[in-house]
Amino acid sequence: MNRDADxxxxxxxxxxxxxxxxxxxxxxxxxxxxSHRALNGTGRPVEGDEExxxxxxxxxxxxxxxxxxxxxxxxxQERTVPGWPPGTGIRAQAxxxxxxxxxxxxxxxxxxxxxxxxxxxxxxxxxxRKARILGLCVAAASLALACTPAPAPPTxxxxxxxxxxxxxxxxxxxxxxxAEVETATAPPGYVYDLWIGCAGIGFARSTDGGRHFGxxxxxxxxxxxxxxxxxxxxxxxxxxxxxxxxxxHVAYPVVAASFDHGASFPQVVPLIPPVTGNWGDxxxxxxxxxxxxxxxxxxxxxxxxxxxxxxxxxxxxxDTGDANAVIQKSTDxxxxxGPITPAGPGFPRNGGVGAxxxxxxxxxxxxxxxxxYVSPGTYQMHPGHEFFTSSANGTQxxxxxxxxxxxxxxxxxxxxxxxxxxxxxxxxxxYATWDTQASRGDVGWLSVSTDxxxxxxxxxxxxxxxxxxxxxxxxxxxxxxxxYVGWQTDAPAPGYATYLRAYSVTKxxxxxxxxxxxxxxxxxxxxxxxxGLATLPGGKIAVSWGxxxxxxxxxxxxxxTVSVAHGG
Length: 568
What we know:
CATH class: Mainly Beta
Number of domains: 1
Strand content: 35-45%
Shape: globular
CATH architecture: 6 Propeller
Radius of gyration: 23 Å
Structural class: mainly beta
Number of strands: 37
């Protein structure tokens, strides 16, 4: 983008024409064209691929609000717009009491009037007053204030150069549908892929940094109804492959352990809950520096309370449910597991689903979960937001998790994919990604915390365009101050494609996105709710995804290695 006076004037005039809400519903910054073109897997510009090309766009509508001083989500503070009346700021965390004690709260414009916050989230969030940000000049004009536009955000300098390897069909040999892959890596060059397939849960490994993969196999114990794979590697090299399973009207996680770098899985342990007829879904797994293993999963005491909303060529969202984000801990390498512990308040109506976790060097467990308000009695679930919480030992959790930027929009209960993601770079900076749904479309976000999750920067927009198509997000921390953010979407391209982009805490986006997947996957065939992203030594990233390409009737698992070179 050429930053001359005419373009600056045009950009801000366009911004002034937008009646933007606090969630920046109107995408004014789409008028700011980026001069970069994205690169394809061979390093050439991608022509006509709006998703990749426009990912270099700087979103002025969001940047306008960045003029607020120290604009971060913090516990117990209200952010106000300079010159605005008191009480029109954004409160990230209000103190008790709730409505019964003279307070009030507001969830989202789409929540039916008269609903009060249930115990699952009332403790997590008090009063939230949404600032009606109309854009820089519009807000100033409405207050009869002078408006001196700040310079337009600069075009992202190309300081990261990508090189994408050839693509490997990881799931070859496993007939039928193969989808929803997760990836983990370990030194010196192990890459592990785990997915739904092989008549259960499929697994394949590479011992040479992702250049070649061994044959796909089915993880022991996963035959039958198994779903939602998750994978982690311990400091001693033990590979933990987790997945959900159902048997005899009980749904629960299973953790298989390999002590020979994925050559075999001799230890298979189910985490069976104490009640039958329960509901269970999406597990995540992580290992501490000292070997403790943690599994989070979605748990409901009664499957009868859960009503799903499913569609063709996709998985399911929620209508009703007694959903709760819970965690279990093992101190003996996954042989035995402690009790189910809610990771958030308000059990059994916490409303938490999808809870990725990290274990920090000091043993602290960080969790990011999607929290929905759940109506008492009916268990009706309503649009939700992301919540961050931490525990020193995994057994005691705060009653006030931090709600991340609710003013940017809500997450629909019908969202069927799993993209809330939590990563950390080499310096310990945290990166949270998620997407929201509103009339302007599906939007992916990235927020950064540089203080261990105490405060979170205003999110930056990840995905371009106005499409309502899903954007399945993932992120992974890189070197100090850098994260790699990926997304898979079928819009506006001919089908599903997977993209990758680099972000710097100090510089912002480090150039445009790269399209990792060389072919487009069929919209009519489900690729899975997730895709895999993990770092390798030597500045490389292992990427895996599901897609049905070339007219195939089933999705397959594909993998590539992306080399990253930082510099001008």
